Structure prediction request, 260 residues.
Amino acid sequence: MITVLPADVVAVIDTEARKVVSVRPNRLLLVAPTAIAVVGTLITALLAGPYDPKGQPHTGAATVGLYLAIAASCVVAAIIGLSSTGGEYRRETFALSVLFAPDRDRLVIGKYAAAAGIALGVAFTAELASALVLVIAARGKANFGWGFFEALGGGLIAAMCWAVIGAGLGLLARSFSTVLWLLLAWVVVFEPLMWLVAKSMSLGWVAAALPVASTVAGVTAGTFEESDFLAPAPAALVLIVLWACVVGAAGWWNLRDRDL
Prediction:
């Protein structure tokens, strides 16, 4: 049998995934996006009027629930990634994980891969549930064209990237609660303020490069084409992938370079 990954890396990934799904609060968290997808999409599908090609979002007002589900998937992905790293520092079990891992590099690979894989599963399940509700309850109210599938694909990529970002930040700060509050403050306060400042200074490209703006632009492809601080969808997805790579690499380097 030919395997793509070394056996010891596969074992680490399996162990890290089990750490996440074996905790009851995490299991409840993992099903939250699907619940939001079903309820939110059903509500927006029933309340929405006929599809308007000139309206927003470009996939139809009935699909607002889908975007809520994608947003919830990204939030859960970041928390799961953070829990896999910062949560271990909070429980003071990271040294034990390093002791039983082949080395720190493989441990980081396992944590990132497990978090991204779980995030992919969560986002896929939520999007599938939302799409099924739309097919049943939103006939004539949604556009199931290429833009719809762009949103689905962008949501999957964004969820995996936010899982890696959460895990990388946990390795950098070596804390769960601190990073959780910082992420909340960044999404709700700091980045929107940076959008306003960048717009007032005619520096929309700066705002477009930020992680939340990249996520919104990548998922809502074509909806906000006239926005000053949202990049085109393909470029936005590249930006969020780059954010995941930079934060993930910084967390990995911090674990290698510092004592536990």
Remarks:
- The first helix runs from residue 7 to 21.
- The mean pLDDT is 88.
